[in-house]
Write a structure and sequence with these properties.
Strand order of the largest sheet: 1-2-7-4-5-8
Radius of gyration: 19 Å
Helix content: 40-55%
Oligomer: single chain
Largest sheet: 6 strands, antiparallel
Number of domains: 2
Mean pLDDT: 92
């Protein structure tokens, strides 16, 4: 797995690029799971053999509300463009809600010229070279004028990610001078899920980071510090997204 930075001119829409390559012995499977982010991915996949691909290699995966799981076998190579929250909508005009928990051929959204460039990426292409090609393919999608609503969304998401004191949707709305309804409409339009879900996912990433750093306090305190006031609810959310209860994750 290798990450590469996106060119500066694409940064308002693309967060980074990632390249994944694998080569496993016969009869060996590797389960891979990722805690979801409120973002879409544009991928070129060789060897992943996902049923949703329909034989195509260029795919779009919308915001995933569940833990993203895939079983890796054989050999393969994937180059991905991780878009910023709302990036898919800002670049293509897509309905974000129609892509939640969905992977489909990118031909549903992207013009043929973009698809042809991406489909030309061959397995084994060095990550830096693949990033240059993918960036060149995405660049024609950039709108001629700035979308102020998308800019506002990015500002809100940056605050939600960086300010750990924001634990409730009402906190975000009040901090930024918006009504809760206006905030929810903005997220529904550009992300496809509500601000409450986004806050919960970011705080869950924080929880996992704290546990990884060797946290030895009570789970009740950990849950409360990150916005869960019901420990049972926290345990259910953690298990659904990480795959095991928080206490088992810490022991492991």
């Amino acid at each position: 797995m290798e990450r590469t930075e996106t060119p500066a001119d694409l940064a308002p829409w693309v967060e980074y690029h990632w390249t994944l390559a694998w080569d496993l012995p016969e009869h060996t499977a590797y389960p891979s799971a990722v805690i979801p982010h409120p973002a879409c991915n544009l991928t070129v996949e060789h060897g992943a053999a996902r049923a949703a691909a329909g034989g195509e290699v260029v795919l779009v995966t919308g915001v995933t509300t569940r833990r993203f799981e895939v079983e890796v076998t054989g050999s393969g190579w994937v180059h991905g463009v991780k878009l910023r929250p709302g990036g898919l909508v800002a670049l293509t005009g897509a309905d974000a809600r129609a892509w939640v928990d969905r992977t489909a051929p990118a031909a549903e959204l992207l013009p043929r010229g973009v698809l042809d460039v991406l489909a030309g990426l061959a397995p084994g292409t060095p990550a830096a070279d693949a990033t240059k090609v993918a960036a060149a393919a995405v660049r024609p999608l950039v709108p001629e004028t700035v979308d102020p609503a998308h800019n506002r969304l990015l500002h809100l998401v940056e605050a939600m990610l960086g300010d750990r004191t924001l634990l409730r949707v009402d906190d975000v709305a009040e901090r930024h001078g918006l009504s809760r309804r206006a905030l929810e409409r903005l997220f529904a339009r550009y992300v496809g899920v509500g601000p409450k879900w986004v806050l919960a996912r970011y705080r869950m990433h924080d929880v996992v980071t704290v546990l990884d750093s060797g946290y030895d306090g009570s789970m009740a305190d950990l849950a409360a510090a990150h916005g869960w006031y019901d420990q049972a609810h926290f345990a259910r959310d953690f298990t659904a997204l990480v795959g095991v209860p928080p206490s088992s994750y810490r022991r492991a």
